[in-house]
Each structure stands twice: as structure tokens, then as C-alpha cells.
């Protein structure tokens, strides 16, 4: 078994549930970390080994109530591939997806064609609920649109990423959208991603223009930032009660 996501046209990742191995209960809130065997984080007292995933990947839980501050240190540790903020309790499929998506982003951003000024594993989470007072004003929150598949079907969901603004500008473009606006648009954006995956974008002028830009790819948050006027027009003129996407849980 591999935890590498499947890809469709345009190198678009699709994450099968069966590629996200179960993890034990998290006894305390903290950071879920994927790391290489040689990573020294596993030796510190606040860090617990939860499991070993395929490809000799260590799954670590770092106990902390200073999630973003400690995540900023952990993401730069040698051998760290992914960092995800989680609460205490059962480690859900959404949390396993978030840490796997962090690893995917880390892999993509380390490619020569995607050289990033700021190194380190991405910091992801399943919700945007970390208190605003704990987040530096220079850090922004990005909702990635992601597809999770299972035998019964597929569903579109969101993986959140905390990014420093220079990273966000490099990844998303010069104009970052307002976070509150993006959150209010998420139901429509998930609907539009589903429509783009199934080649069902509405046949309006804006829809045809967006379809030409996507060229068969599923809609991503980068596409939303770079083509906001088209996306906004589509969502403003069409109801977006999401069609039945099946279940992936």
C-alpha cells in the first residue's frame, strides 16, 4: 500500500480512503507529523510514535497547546514531510487526509519547477478554528479543494493550510482573497469543483471561459484566486446545491 495520491488529468490529486491507514486515538491535542525514520523529533519527550505508514514513514504526535508556534518549528526539522493540527480524540479520516495532503504539497513544492523561497513542510488542518489571536498577522489561511474517494463514490472536501503571506503570494498570486469571503463561498466552490471533475460546468459565457482555462483539470484554490471574476459570476448566477457525490468515509 502507498500513501501517494492517485492523479487524474493535469496532475490533479485524488485521495482514496484506503490509502489513509487508520491511526490510534490521540490522547491530547497537538501536531500530527509524517517524518522519515532518521527524524529526531521522535526522540523528544513531548513526541509520541503512533504508527509506521508505508514507505517507512513515521507517524508522530507532538503534544502542544501552541499549535502554530510549534508547527512552525516542526515543519523545518530535517526529515519532516507533513504537519497537521489535530484535536484530542479519534483521528478522523479528515485528519489523515489533511496530513497526507500536506505531504503531497511538500512533494510538489520541492520540485525544481516549483522552487519555493520558504522551505519546510506545509501546516494543514481539518478546521480553521485556531484562535485568531494565536495566528501572526503575516500568516493567512487557505482552503484547498480536495477529492476523497471510496468504493461508494467520491466527495469534495476542504483541507486548510496556514501559510506565510510570501508563500501564499508565490502559490496563489499577487492578490489574496479575503478569508471571510472565501469561507462564505466554500459550498459553491465545492459544487464547482465537482462539476469541473465531471465536465459539467454550466454552459454560460463564464462557464465556457473557465472550462477552457481548466482544460480538463478539477478546480483548485489557485484557479479560484487567478480567475476570481469568472468563478464569482458562475456562483452568482447558478444555484449550487451540490449534486449527490456519493460517500467517501
The percent range for helix content is 25-40%
Order of strands in the sheet with most strands: 1-2-8-9-7-6-3-5-4
Order of helices and strands: EEEEEHEHEEEHHHHH
**Largest sheet geometry:** 9 strands, mixed
Figure out the total of helices. Answer: 7
End-to-end distance: 18 Å
Oligomeric state: single chain
Overall pLDDT score: 87
Structure description:
With 249 residues, this protein is α+β, with helices and mostly antiparallel strands. The chain has one domain. 31% of the residues lie in helices and 25% in strands. Strands 1-2-8-9-7-6-3-5-4 form a 9-stranded mixed sheet. Helix 5 crosses helix 7. The two termini are 18 Å apart.
Which keywords apply here?
alpha+beta, globular, disordered C terminus
Amino acid at each position: 500500500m502507498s500513501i501517494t495520491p492517485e492523479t487524474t488529468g493535469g496532475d490533479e490529486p485524488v485521495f482514496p480512503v484506503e490509502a489513509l491507514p487508520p491511526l490510534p486515538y490521540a490522547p491530547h491535542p497537538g501536531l500530527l507529523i509524517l517524518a522519515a525514520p532518521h527524524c529526531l523529533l521522535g526522540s523528544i519527550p513531548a513526541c509520541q510514535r503512533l504508527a509506521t505508514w508505508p514507505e517507512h514513514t513515521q507517524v508522530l504526535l507532538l503534544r502542544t497547546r501552541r499549535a502554530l508556534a510549534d508547527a512552525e518549528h516542526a515543519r523545518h526539522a530535517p526529515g519532516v514531510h507533513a504537519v497537521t493540527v489535530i484535536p484530542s480524540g479519534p483521528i478522523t479520516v479528515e485528519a489523515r487526509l489533511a496530513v497526507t495532503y500536506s505531504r503531497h504539497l511538500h512533494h510538489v513544492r520541492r520540485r525544481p519547477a516549483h522552487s519555493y523561497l520558504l522551505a519546510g513542510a506545509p501546516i494543514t488542518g481539518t478546521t480553521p478554528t485556531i484562535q485568531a489571536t494565536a495566528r501572526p498577522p503575516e500568516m493567512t489561511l487557505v482552503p484547498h479543494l480536495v477529492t476523497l474517494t471510496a468504493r461508494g463514490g467520491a466527495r469534495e472536501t476542504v483541507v486548510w493550510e496556514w501559510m506565510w503571506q510570501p508563500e501564499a503570494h508565490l502559490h496563489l498570486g499577487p492578490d489574496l482573497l479575503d478569508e471571510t469571503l472565501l469561507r462564505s463561498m466554500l459550498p459553491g466552490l465545492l459544487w464547482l469543483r465537482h462539476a469541473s471533475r465531471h465536465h459539467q460546468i454550466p454552459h454560460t459565457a463564464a462557464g465556457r471561459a473557465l472550462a477552457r482555462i481548466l482544460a480538463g483539470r478539477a478546480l483548485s484554490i489557485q484557479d479560484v484566486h487567478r480567475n476570481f471574476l469568472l468563478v464569482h459570476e458562475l456562483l452568482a448566477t447558478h444555484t449550487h446545491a451540490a449534486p449527490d457525490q456519493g460517500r467517501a468515509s
